Amino acid sequence: MTDARVWNTSAAPGKELAYWRRATCEAVFELELESFAETSLAASIEQRTLGPLSMSRMSIGFGQRIRRTPASINRTDRQQFELVYLLSGKIGLKQCGREIELGPRSCVLVDSREQYQLTTAPGSSNLSFHLPSGWLKQWLPQPEALVARDMAGTTPWQAALLSTLDAVRDEPLDDDYATLFANQIAGALALCAQQGEVRPIRQHQLKLYNRLRQTVIDFAHDNTLDAAKLAQFHGISVRYLHAIFATAGTSYSRELLDIRLTRARQMLSDPRFRDLSIAEIAWRCAFFDASHLTRHFRARFKCTPGVFRDKAARDGAGTDAVVEDVKRLN
C-alpha cells in the first residue's frame, strides 16, 4: 500500500495561508489562491498514488477561490484533468463558458489546460482524482466534452461512477488493485459520455461552442440579444450557430434561458438583493416581466420565485438545496 503524502496547515502556525498555497500547488498544479477566511485557516491534503493516477483528499475549513490563469498554466508542464468528487460543503465552478454549483455527492471533470475558477464554501471536503491527459484520452476520445458538467448520479452510469469513487472514501486501496480501480474510473467516465451526456463533437466545434456560450453569459442581461446578434459577433451564419449548439446537444434558446434562470435564482437567494422586487430581478435578468420569469422559473424549479426566495431566507441554504427542499414539499 502506497504511503500517503500529507500537508496540514497546523504545521505552519502563523503562516497557514502561505503554506496552504504552496501545498495546493505542489499537490495539484500551479494555481492562484485567494482565502475568504475570517478566523480559522485549518486545511489538509492527504494524497495517495493509484496506479497511473493520484488521489487527494482535501478538507478546507475556510472559504477560498482558486483560479487557473494563463500565467499559472505557463508555469507548469503537468497536463491533467481533475475529477472532483464533493463529500461535503459546496463548490462553484466556472470553465469553458459554463457555470455550475455542486453539492455533496456530485462530481465534475475539470481541464487543467484551460482557465477556470473554482470557489469552495467553508467546511468543504472532497476527493480530487488527478488524471493524466494522455492516459485519460486512451479511454475517452474527447474528455473535453465532459468538462464542467455536473455528474450527480442522475443517470445509471453516473451512479456507477459515484459508487466507484465511494469505494475509496474511507479505506485505502491495496497497490495490487490500484490500476484496476483507475481503469474503472476511466471506464465509468467513458460510459457517462456514451449515455447521451454529451454528443460527439469535433475539437474546433467544441471551442466555438464554448466561445458562443461565454458570450451568451456575458450578455444574457441584454434583452435585445438574439441568435442573429450572437452569430454576427462571432462572424458566422445564424444557421451555423444553430448547428453548433445542436451538435453540442442543446440549442441557443435553451442555453440562454438556462443562463438567465440561473442568474435569477442566484439573485433570489442572495441577501444583498433581498430588497429588490421580483419584477426588478426579472428585468435585470432580461425577462419581460415578473410573470414571464415566474412561468419559466416554476417550470424549471417547481416553485415560484417568491416561494424560493422565502425558503432561502429562512434556511440560509445554498440554491440547489433550496430547490430540492421545495421539490420534496411539492
What does this structure look like?
This protein is α+β, with helices and mostly antiparallel strands and 330 residues long. It is built from 13 helices and 11 strands. It has a 6-stranded antiparallel sheet with strand order 1-3-4-11-6-9. A hairpin with a 2-residue loop joins strand 7 and strand 8. 33% of the residues are buried.
Shape: globular
Distance between the termini: 49 Å
The helix-strand sequence is EHEEEEHEEEEEEHHHHHHHHHHH
Helix proportion:
40-55%
Taken together, the total number of domains comes to 3
SS class: alpha+beta
Q: Helical region count?
A: 13
CATH class value of the largest domain: Mainly Beta
Average pLDDT confidence is 86
- Strand arrangement, largest sheet? 1-3-4-11-6-9
Please state the CA-atom Rg, rounded to the nearest Å: 21 Å
Sheet with the most strands, sense and barrel status: 6 strands, antiparallel
CATH topology of the largest domain: Jelly Rolls
* CATH-derived architecture of the largest domain: Sandwich
In CATH, the homologous superfamily of the largest domain goes by the name Jelly Rolls
